Amino acid sequence: MRAHPAGPRHGDLVTDPGAMVAAPTAEAVDALAESVWPRHCSRGADGAMTIGGVDVRDIAADHGSPVYVLDEVDLRSRAREYASAYRQAGASRVYYAAKAFLSVAVARWVFEEGLGIDVASGGELAVAVRAGVPGDALLMHGNNKSMAEITAAIEYGVGRIVVDSFEEIARVASAAADAGVVQPVMVRATVGVEAHTHEFIATAHEDQKFGLSAETGAAEEAVRRIAKLPSLSLVGLHSHIGSQIFDSSGFEVAAGRIVSLAQRLHEEQGIDIAELNLGGGMGIAYVDSDDPINVADMAAQIGRIASRACADAGIDEPTLAFEPGRAIVGPAGITLYEVGTIKPVELDSGVVRTYVSVDGGMSDNIRTALYGAEYSVRLASRSSSAPPMLCRVVGKHCESGDVVVRDAWLPEDLAPGDLLAVAATGAYCRSMASNYNYLTRPGVVGVRDGAASTIIRRETMDDLLGLDTHA
Length: 471
Ligand code: LLP
Hints:
Strand content: 25-35%
CATH superfamily of the largest domain: Alanine racemase
Oligomer: single chain
Number of strands: 24
Largest sheet: 9 strands, mixed
CATH topology of the largest domain: TIM Barrel
Bound molecules: ligand LLP
């Protein structure tokens, strides 16, 4: 596996971006694979796509494009499935990782469906607070939380602060002492496992910024310091091994290592670990060929792995916790774009690749440019039986790396004004969006039972110019 350009813990790179299989049929290019598209997404009688019972042409007409669309019923059902499957596997709490996508509405939906929320900044905390999610359902992450973020979390009664450094132990302890409370904390331990999709790398040490090493004694030292501080109470240990993981093998190595840390803490310091948070990273299908293990099996396997590791180590089994983000919101979202220009380019090989430019790009989905992520794209405003052509769906930004879907097949009769839909963009698209080239960030529309409503409104030029003190 090649190293990820953005560092560890990210999605896999496409290893051979130019490799294309033989042209698919027109039907295949029109089809909406269940594993990739939201659960309530299909083509209506006239061939146009509907999502949550709403015609995508109406969404674009009413809300503009590009626009992110979230299938609320789909998102809620995934939240419920994760809450129930992981509870059954021994979890006391399943947190939704807000970094994948957060808004007040989504915070409420996931909380109503039984999830807590993992926030990784004061901003994410503020959204969860505004949504009315109670403090004990929140957990705070971050490798460099500011004093203001720590204080806000403690004042709100955030149930778990995951400490990531020695400095932070002292900071949280002093903020908790000032507030006159005992703050529950967890220690983020690194266990030398980095997992992506089917593969993981296991080493003794990790060369990255998060956590405290389970191997070198840093995590044990953190526990020792916490035990001496009356304003902190240690709840447990935390480990997050990566993202877009398709099976439980990486969790098995990680659980073994973190449980042996718990065993050492028991034997050497007499400290029992009540809770083990094994992080998030459960993978989703972006393209037809992606085949992640189903939710219930993954949960059951990880539960068994943790039980076995504890039994082998001779320690009492802690309760578990998890933090899936992408798996809850990713598959529930699509992005709609309008086609602007269509440009056939003849390659040296004689193959023609058609560049289809849409009205957004790397500012609303950086994942293709940043990670080489793959996506599925469909003609959404109508169906077509025209023969497929090899395309690259690109944005409108001033750089050639501004690619939304690197290799796609779209019908030959594609025309400016057509709407395209890109699947599985619910996670890490809006949350990583930018204003590059002064594009306004798209809005987010929720759909359910035939009705669409704005969750986050589209930015306006006034919003952006309002930040410019000379405007
Ligand atoms: N917990 C911790 C401590 C994390 O760092 C993350 C993700 C999660 C939970 C949630 O992971 P998920 O279940 O969503 O995979 N921007 C990248 C992903 C970065 C993930 C960072 N941490 C992407 O677009 O693929």
